[in-house]
Amino acid sequence: MSKIHVTTTINGEPAEFLCEPHQTLLDVLRNELNLTGSKEGCASGDCGACSVIVDGRLMCSCLMLAVESTGHEVTTIEGVAKGDELHPVQRQFLQHAALQCGFCTPGLIVAAKALLDRNTNPTETEARYWLAGNLCRCTGYDKVIRAVLDAAAEMRGETVA
Amino acid sequence: MTYVGNKADLRVVGTRPIRPDGVDKVTGRATFGADMVMPGMIWGKVKRSPHAHARIVSIDTSKASKLPGVKAVITAEDFPNIASEEAFVGEGPMNFRDLSRNCMARGKALYEGHAVAAVAATTESICDAALELIEVTYEVLPFVIDVEDAMKPDAPLLHDDMYTQGVQPKPSNPSNVAKRVHFGLGDIEAGFRDAEVVVEGRYTTQPVHQAYIEPHATVVSYGADQQCLVWSSSQGQFMVRSYCAKLLGIELSNIRVMVAEIGGGFGGKTLVYLEPLALALSKKAGRPVKMMMTREEVFRATGPTSGGTVEVKIGARKDGTITAAQATLKYQAGAFAGSPVQPGCMTAFAVYDIKNVSVTGYDVVSNRPKVAAYRAPGAPISCFGVESAMDDLARKLGMDPVELRLKNAAKDGTKAAYGPTFKDIGFVETLEEAKKHPHYSIPLGPNQGRGVASGFWFNIGGESSGAVHIAEDGTAVVMSGNPDIGGSRAGMAMMAAEVLGIPVEKCRPIVADTASIGFTHLTGGSRVTFATGMAVTQAAEKVVEILKQRAALIWDIPVEAVEWKDGAAYPAGANAGGFDPLTLPEIAMKAGRTGGPIGAEQGVNAQGAGPGFGTHICDVEVDPETGKVTVLRYTAIQDVGRAIHPSYVEGQIQGGAVQGIGWALNEEYIYDKNGKMDNAGFLDYRVPVASDLPMIDTVMVEVPNPRHPFGAKGVGEVPIVPPMAAVANAIRGAIGIRMEHLPMSPPKVRAPLDARK
Lengths: 161, 757
Description:
Largest interface: A-B, 56 and 60 residues
Distance between the termini of chain A: 57 Å
Structural class of chain B: alpha+beta
Number of strands of chain B: 28
Radius of gyration of chain B: 27 Å
Distance between the termini of chain B: 66 Å
Shape of chain A: globular
Oligomer: heterodimer
Helix content of chain B: 25-40%
Number of helices of chain B: 20
CATH superfamily of the largest domain in chain A: Beta-grasp domain
CATH topology of the domain at 378-459 and 610-756 in chain B: Aldehyde Oxidoreductase, domain 4
Shape of chain B: globular
């Protein structure tokens, strides 16, 4: 079977790759493009460790075929910080110690960014339901939710302790 | 040197710096098990038994081997057939023969998902095709899944050479009961005669998986010169080295295990599954091999912890004094002996000072995956029974449940039924905190209830290595031998910085591979901050001694006349001479002229780990229509000795409590009538998600452990012990029904509610 040539945009830069028709976007990100920040925890859309943003929409990259990214804009964890400048969500995850093993963290941060891109003033309940697709087995979510709410406050220009 | 007594003098310990590996982990740069590639690497996959119990009549690999792209096919024949030998390498005892046969079935497949063969090929797709071409002929055997069924005399036998240990006389027939254990204190019958009130219960728990989000993954290279490189995500690089060496017959120093970041373990990565297979494949193929499990494989073939049956009987005087406590525990071990029933027995009544105790346990094999350690292995199961019965006792006596626990609480000087006499423990303090916590007096609404439960875990010490090297600019590299699962690099850097007297940012913590630091027992048993922290502290103290010697040399005064404070050498008093202080960078710069590089490694066998105690308060609301239980409030109080980095201590407590809530409400292995797991995925095996939970409030009680330089006690395991009983007791309060079986999922809670209508 011949491979398919895909042209897309990843983290703001033009990208192209060859892939098999059955390869997922996660597989290609990790194994063809060496963007290993997106993780495989289940490959069935249940854990959220592979979360990416496609044209502003939060997606599990394990549930999307790589060829479907043609002509779309994909943001992965590697594209969340701007150079040395961390995104407020990343900064607040560090401040709050909202990670332990760090494996689910890229997916949680991408998902939280997608939330705050559309709503910089979520309630705790809204944040909890938005992030319900991202499993974290280490933290019990307490510090994760506090980090996301403080990141939101920071993005609203409020002073965060 | 010890720093315990003077907390006010500590500059770094007890603060909350950003963890040194944090930026890597929030930007996707951290490299986990599956993120590694090696030049020339190919892929490996495992063929697994579709049967719960079957004799392997033959395995024909010829078609698979001929498939283009296939570079190696292995079965049990490619491994030494090793003899039975007990070892203590992981978090509990392990028999090398059993481990070998768990990694690759020999003669019989003992559970659905048991590895029977493996292939390596140039692509993952070719691996999949090759697995289909391996022809295994099975003779399907009767199977047994549940623990009490497995104990029956006519149950299908897993191992025809297994005779129950710990019973006299030695049994004449083989059995699925691997072992009987017993712990006792005093006179149990006299204790019950003394009792004015007796409560009894029979409780069951289901196996639950550690459910770390990172599936097992490894990349290995077996060189033509027998030198092996293993990249692996595990809880112990030295554990991986030991097991691979034993299972493959390789000398230890010929295996170098590199440490990947580990995406959660909770005990489940204290043994090997893929690494020996990958090495055997790599040897045969002459190429590096990468293997990753799918989530389904993780559920079917690794972990979980035991399910069990817990029978409890407690007798007390009317004033609440417990006179006798008895328990019988039956734990599933999975396919090989080794359930955590022994620690389950030892911890069962450990939080109480009881004169007459009798606990008996049975370790039982059945056709399930071999159990692995899971956070305080064994303790949550027995605690669920004991603390549920304690709640019934409090109700029967009309006593507040915290007061009942206070009345019987273990204190300094209490002799535990499992042996030791406690000292420097903080259990009473957790109960006093519970009593005065605002949570404990918030009014409850309709269908709401409040539960309390306490828990215990030993915590361990053991062998660890730490090293501190001073770089030419005066910064420090702090090396240790434990994979960092939850922030231990931060703790190591902080303890070294405290001793060296420099900012924590000047200490770079490194998790070293097996060729770069001395032996270190794995990350488990809540031992790292205690034992490895001790090694790092002592290495840093050695470095301080060297720094003082160098300053003495530069000043030409005796070393006794030099003192070290705030990261610099000072003359000790006026008689030593009027020298300006020499800072660490100044001494480091001159190291070449004063004797060469400055650094030290220290190995320890740390003794005197302080046991951990916790008390949890849980509020729930039960929906009477659906049986759904919602946790409204949760407070976890724990004696932590001294928190080195309080945020990560809180994180351990919160995470453990939530795993316990999952165990209480949702998680279980479900088997179909053919002995196959029905819910091998995160959709059907439901771990708690963010929207299931409230904030988890934590209270850290600090009763320092004088046997650690900074007073630390292990903190990671205690918090999973009380939650199941705390939730069950809250449900009892809400609906007046005692839930005796886990998980307390909606249908299980609704059934007795419907029956009552």
